[in-house]
Amino acid sequence: MLLVAVTAALGAAASAAAAPPRQDVVLPGPVPYPTPNPPLAGKTAISGGFTRYVFHIASTERVLIGVDETGSPSSVRVRQRLDVGGRGDYQFAISGPIEDVLRGPGSDSDPGLRADQVLWAGFSPGHKVLTADVTLRPGEAAQYLPLRLGLERTGDGVTLTLTNATVTQELEYAGTTRTRQIASLLDRTRRTARAGERLTAAYATFYGLVRQRERKAQIEAPLRVEGELRAGSGKPVRFSGTLGDGEPLALVVHAPGDGTPHVTVTATPVPAERLLRPPGGAPTWTAALKRRPLPAPFLLKRLLESRMRLVRADQYQSFLANPDADGRSRSVYAYETAKEPRRRAVPAPASSDDDGGSPLVLLLAIAGAVLGAAAGLVAWAHS
Amino acid sequence: MRRGLFLLAALALLAAGCGKSSGSSDLGHVTVAVDVPVTGSPYIAQTIRQGLELATSNLNAGGGVRAGEKSYRLDVKLYDNHLSARQAVKDTRRALDANTVAIVTDGTGVDATWQIAEREGVPICITYDGGSGLVDAETRPNVFRIAPTNHGIAFRYAEYLVPKKPKVALLSDDSAYGSEGAADLDRAFAENPEAVAMKLTLPGGQSDLTPQVLRVKRSGATALLVWGQPPTIAAVLSAARSSGWDVPVYAPPTGADPFIRQQLADHPEWVDGLTFASGRMTAEVGTAPFESFQSQYESTYGADKVGVKTSEGEPVVQPPEFAMYAYDFAHVLTGAIIRAASTDPEKITAALNQVTTQGANGDERGFNENNHEGVVDDDVYFARFHDMTFAPVPDDPLSSTLPVIPQTG
Questions:
Q1: Which of A198, B55, B382, B403 is positioned for an S-S bond with B330, CB 3.0–4.6 A?
Q2: Other C-beta atoms lying within 10 Å of the C-beta of residue A319
Q3: Is B379 within 8 Å of A113 when comparing Cβ atoms?
């Protein structure tokens, strides 16, 4: 699925015997994504059509995940804002395990709801903001969240484990390449990543046989996490870090104290940055190569796996789909321990103008219900 | 192509569900009731009924509608609500006794009839009245509408007029239609009070509104937005123009009612410049689908003649806008019957939330679980009269993209 050889630019017949065959191989990115989801898909939704080319849409999402005392998601909601550019009639459908949708703040229009679909329809005079607060069925949506939380009571406090849940295996190619070209491609990829842009298609030239590595690459969307953990009224512990991009894929945080744990975490998919940093403090990979030789297989592996990570990170930028497949999408995932169910307030002393809430009224109601049931029983017995 | 997302699926669904059955004798019958003010507002009643009948006769000619294993013929049964809620309640009860699967109405009495119909799970579709409280997907799950909403019209007017920096007098008559519209105008202009010169309720049914219009003129108003029945709009125009006041006059869909032009036929120049808001009749695909519908409608029932002529002496005809809404509902209903694979009204009501079909204007029509409105607010456009016919205004982004519908012949 990763790489597809699209052209076999063989040399001229005369030189074929002398030089190994050359192939331009497509590098990962911008698509396809390594797994079908995200973006989420609905089970019963009618498959969507295409968005007319006249529209350019930027999608910004804030995914709000309520977690229970063990860190498991108990609710998943998304506030999605679509900035629609372009003039004309539109109808967009965004599918997923959708339970409900409401108009979000600043929206110029109301969203519609069909089975597993949010619908937008109307006319855009040139620019339009469409914002929806979407409630998802947590059982189906949670499996595609990028971060897994584990909350555990340990000794003197509570321990939180954050795990990057975006790891997937991908096929990886190997073969003979020219280091200069690969270094140049690394530089180009790095520039794109640092600019926060989406990858554009690129090719690498392989000489001779192109083979697949036996071991698949373990690829993740690097996640920038920030948050706070507190145990009851204990002192909160702040934390931040990157999970992936050459850093560990998990982070463990401990907060001392008794009482109910409370955690807030935001996770943002970020481009691979560390893995694209040239070695030895060189400004570019090309410059690093000039300073000292770098093994071609190392460069190729770094290029392929960095690009795979960029693609994976791009995939998690759209938890709900952007109707414009080429549009810019950004998602932030915000986790927070769900509030405890509200406890009933202690009843206030009954007052004379209390409307039906006094113990006397309650007793009368119970007595009435008992009498009613008895009367019903008698009527039934005589029917 | 406008809103093409679900069209293929919807058309496939219809194609699978509509077709010749083995024989007409195998056909079952389902009844659709149309409850309209035949003796209160005959033009509206006639155009709604004819739109519905045109659609059902087309569908029947194609073999009816298939629900599961059986095909059904759609029969239309007409009831006259006399513009009376009490009569609408009686009609609804009779329609339910006749096992109707859906009720199409102008909107009269829906506040009273929806609960009666809901007990049987029967959907009601409003194809004229845009009143804000009539449709609520949550509290009135069986009520749908294909017609521009008052809310949408009021907000589109605010969006259209406020940037022009006029001093608008918001006038409404004392009919239910007028007071509902006034409430929506209040909400729409609430954020721009500086744009409002005054608000005034006009007595309905009076042909002379000269004193009221004079009062409005003295308020410094530079534009009139009149939300009322056609006679009220005609009376305001008459009062303003006869006094030499060439103030721009804006109106809801009733501004396009033939009655106004008939009333002012002796002074066609008084109608010039009257602007009304309504639902667009054409989609981005162009005029062809609507013209095809109009042609079919007119060849079946004859053109809806307004009863006035242009300065060239050509008779003016009214495009079948509200007939289109009833026509479209029949198709959405058919899609729902096919999807439900049943003629059980409750199942049909549920399926109405999930289907989209192609409307007479080439646009898609459908409802959804949160919104039972078949005309979105964005589809409200503005048109201005000149020489007894109207054309979309050029100074509104949507309207400026719309073609002129032929209105003579």
A1: B55
A2: 29
A3: no
- pLDDT mean across residues, chain B: 91
Could you tell me which residues are beta bridge partners of residue A120? A92
Rounded Cα distance, B355 and B330, in Å: 12
Q: Is the domain of B205 the same as that of B124?
A: no
**Cβ-based contacts of B7 with chain A (< 8 Å):** 49
Higher pLDDT, B358 or A353: B358
Q: Are residues B364 and B223 in the same domain?
A: no
Task: Determine, yes or no, domain membership for B92.
Answer: yes
Asked if B375 and B144 touch (Cβ cutoff 8 Å), the reply is: no
The pTM of the whole model exceeds 0.80? no
Over range A257-264, report the average pLDDT.
93
- Asked whether residue A249 is assigned to any structural domain, the reply reads yes
Q: Is some CB atom of chain A closer than 8 A to the CB atom of B42?
A: no
Structural domains of chain A, count: 1
Secondary structure of B342-406 as H, E, C letters: CCCHHHHHHHHCCCEEECCCCCEEECCCCCCECCCHHHEEEEEEECCEEEECCCCCCHHHCCCCC
Residue B249 is inside which H or E element, if any? strand B249-251
Distance of CA A239 to the CA centre of its chain: 20
Closest CA to B210 of B202, B222, B198: B202
Residues B129 and B16 in one domain: yes
**In a 3-state reduction of DSSP, which class is residue A57?**
strand
| Among candidates B353, B376, B378 on the partner chain, residue whose Cβ is nearest the Cβ of A114 | B353
Q: What is the CATH number of the domain that holds B128?
A: 3.40.50.2300
Q: What is the ipTM of this complex?
A: 0.72
Measured between CA atoms, the residue of chain A closest to residue B355 is A114
Structural domain containing residue B177: 151-280+380-401
The backbone torsions φ and ψ at residue B365, rounded to the nearest 5 degrees and listed phi first, read -120, 140
CB contact A85 to B (< 8 Å): no
Q: For tokens 């033939």, what's the residue?
A: B258
Tell me phi and psi for residue B131, to 5 degrees: -50, 135
